[in-house]
Design goal:
Elements: E1 2-7, H1 13-24, E2 30-37, H2 43-50, E3 55-57, H3 66-79, E4 84-87, H4 96-101, E5 106-110, H5 122-128, E6 133-140, E7 150-157, H6 164-187
Parallel strand pairs: 1-2, 1-4, 2-3, 4-5
Antiparallel strand pairs: 5-6, 6-7
Helix pairs in contact: 1-6
Protein name: Phosphoribosylglycinamide formyltransferase
Binding site for (6R)-10-formyltetrahydrofolate: 66, 91-94, 108
GO molecular function: phosphoribosylglycinamide formyltransferase activity
């Protein structure tokens, strides 16, 4: 079994999907040691409890620096013998402390075809761009915002009458297929 930690800040839909894939046997030889969040009231916390996954909440405001914040997280990751970190809607840039501890062992999924539309409002940017295609990207995490080496991408159309929520759902459908496939391939 490969031990992974999942980091999330919001709804937790990708976390939930990964847990369901593990439970169904579609994602094999993966053990999720915990859900790490910077938002103790986020919906992902309730999902973690439903899946009986330990929740580790670390609020940056309780630490003197980003380095101290990440050092506390690293201590727990080491205690749990975590081998990989999987970001699933974690809305915070990973810093040097975690990057050094988990070099080339942090994955992220982003709702655009990187290198286009980095950051928080990628779906809106794609929708307002006039383009007819967008999608999702799984990549390794580096010190930049959505700048790490691309591992895999999937595309979907942008329709002229799309609204943000419709396009987000189309992209999420791709993410729910792609992310577990990449996790299985890369981590095994």
């Amino acid at each position: 079994m490969v031990k992974i930690a999942i980091f999330a800040s919001g709804s937790g839909t990708n976390f939930d999907n990964i847990m369901k894939k593990i439970a169904s046997g579609a994602l094999k030889h993966i053990e999720v040691t915990g859900l790490y969040t910077d938002k103790p009231d986020a919906s992902c916390v309730a999902l973690a409890r439903e899946h009986q996954v330990e929740v580790y909440a670390y609020e940056p405001k309780h630490y003197a620096s980003k380095k101290a914040f990440e050092a506390a997280i690293c201590q727990q990751l080491k205690q749990d013998q975590v081998e990989w970190i999987v970001l699933a809607g974690f809305m915070r840039l990973i810093g040097e402390t975690l990057l050094q501890a988990y070099e080339n062992r942090i994955l992220n999924i982003h709702p655009s075809l990187l290198p286009k539309y980095k950051g928080k409002h990628a779906v809106e940017q794609a929708l307002n761009s006039g383009e007819t295609m967008t999608g999702t990207t799984v990549h390794f995490v580096d010190a930049g915002m959505d700048t790490g080496k691309v591992i895999a991408q999937r595309q979907c159309p942008i329709y002229p009458d799309d609204c943000v929520s419709e396009l987000e759902q189309r992209i999420k459908t791709l993410e729910y297929e792609l992310y577990p496939e990449v996790i299985q391939k890369i981590i095994q």
